[in-house]
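User: Could you walk me through two proteins back to back? I'd like the raw sequence and the structure tokens for each, with a short line separating them so I can tell where one ends and the next begins.

Assistant: Of course. Protein one, sequence then structure:
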Amino acid sequence: MTTTTPLAPKPRQLPGGRGRFTAARPVAGFAAAAVALFAVAPLALSDFRLGLLAKYLCTAMVAVGICLAWGRGGLLTLGQGVFFGLGGYAMAMHLKIADAGPGNLPDFMQLYGTATELPWWWRPFANPVFAIAATFLLPMAVAAILGSFIFRRRVKGAYFAILSQALAAAFAIWLVGQQATTGGTNGLTDIQGFFGYDLNDPVNQRMVYFVIAAALLLLIALARQLMHSRYGELLVAVRDSEERVRFLGYDPANVKLVAYVVAAGMAGLAGALFVPAVGIISPALVGIVPSIELVIGAAVGGRASLTGAVLGAIGVAWARTALSEEFPAAWTYFQGLLFIVALAFLPGGLASLAAIVKRRRANRGLAGDTV
């Protein structure tokens, strides 16, 4: 007669315990990011390095929008430099008017001597409320108009990427040709103040850094809310099977348009905050090459992961600054190779490494059990 030993009872699991743990993870990550940006970085970095970090955080803000549009919606946006530039020029125009003083022209207009009064389309930007609103509403309006034409005609994939890239090239060429009103190749430079604060003061530069850090965290929270909402699920469905979504009664064009417009607004806000952080906006920052660089950062870090996209954008921007000084001619080729390798061998970016390792260990364990 054989006796069986009763199995030990499993420990009682509190209902919703795993759900509460899962919900607490993003809150903990958000808190850790806030501590790193607002406490650790200002104490550990010099004023110069903190200024560079502020510049990198602006590129990370663009990457948040790319993560939403490309990572979730499958929209390879190679023209984010356009919206970055629209926001940057909107902010720079107001700051140049404020630096010139009431009744005076910005310095570059006086230098070229082709204008006797402020151009009519510059005048609304003298109002700070209008200028701030234009930094994100203007890019969103342009994206809404362009996206309506593109998505209604079911343009997607490589064709959409090429069109967005052509838009960036056309915008940069237009800026160069308008030397008397946009500064031409030089752009809008030597910006001294930021809503009454002297940007030459290190204390005010730190204030600008804190504004940029806070804006980045807010955009991450907004993007995460969109990604985990019903709209986020619908956006993924459109990316994976557009025809099925149309069969269910939804218009895929509207779904993609929302992601495109939101990403444009984020890029415009990033461009606006880039201006006081660096003191310049020019066509060299909004053309084809900068637009591709913004996408590379999100691709390397992980375009489907907010954390990966943000860290990837910061890392690639830092590497560009550090390595371009040593290898100015070869850095562009290295960036292109990095983009190709990331898409070909690691489509999910560095953020997917942990999942890949975990999956391989699980497969190895299953193979061991079957032997």
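----
Protein two, same layout:
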Amino acid sequence: MTKPLGQNGHEEPDQATADAVNATKPAVSATSADAVKPAEGRIAAEEKPVETGQPQESGSEDSAPAQSSRRVPLILVAVALVLVLAAGIYMLWADHATGNQSAQKPSSGASTAQVSHGPSGDAKAYKALQEVTVKPSVADDQGGLTVSAKGVGSKKKVADAPTLEIFMDPMCPWCGKVGRVIDPQLQRMISAGQINVTYNFLNFLDSASSDQYSSRVDNALAMVAQEDPDHLPAFAAAVFAADFQPNESSYQAVSDARLADKAVGVGVPKALADRFAQGTYRPWVDKVNAYAITRKDAKDAKGEFSTPTIMINGRVWDLTAAAKSQGGLEHLDRALLKALGLKSQDVGHQGKMPSIGAQGKALAVK
């Protein structure tokens, strides 16, 4: 497996990220039981002057009706004051209750902040990826390019089919070895609508080449995904062919013309291949890589990120254990079919779907 240079596992969100998350928490209302108590005290204070049952010290029986008539307005005023203060207490209580409900239910602001932080990777890297102005419209917000029998784009997934998410660098030797084993089956399953595949093309191995080979290939793949999606799976497999993929430890330059010829060889129009050298999506490729290597959901059991990584329905699939169970890497395709719950004789046949469906976990491979 090949790890990004200087990358050991995933970066934890920095303090700025933590602050951003905290900022999305609803503020708890300052209204409390203590704030209500003074209002209760005011009610008690206003009630004391109104003591209708107390005898009067002065006056005669002739003045009793007059005294009673004076008490009636006083009682009405007192009652009015009580009602006003009671209404005030109710409003305070209602505000307090509303504050508690707000603290329990996520607000629209919190939801927006969660989206802007990305599903699992570094917040700053995710934000930078979203801010790239020139990028394939068919890519998802994490930089993935999903291909299915319906075309390219996350909205074109086959609903009942499992999704494989693959992280690879064109210079990664193990990506080539794995790809050469499983790509033929993947292409057949994609065409038959049996599987969706999301490609994440990385470029951290640019440092192993003299001409940023990984970035140039990733850009070409993105251009094909955008403009000629039917040939994306075949082109993605072609760049890992044993007679084409350069050696990571002894790189020999691969020209733009040779890369274009490789694309044309699998059916990509020459007019498109000749524009690879323009590097249309190179800035986007950089941001995809910077974010992808921080994704926590793509870490292996040791908490590290490496290529190739394959996820089945959102969970990392243990390639090493799977290959070992079948007697070696050369039989990884057999292990993959078992993990998906698909018989080898059913590969490429429409209507014969993997048993795990779109949500199930990969089956244990024995």
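The chain has a mean pLDDT of 79.

Let me know if you want the two compared in more detail.
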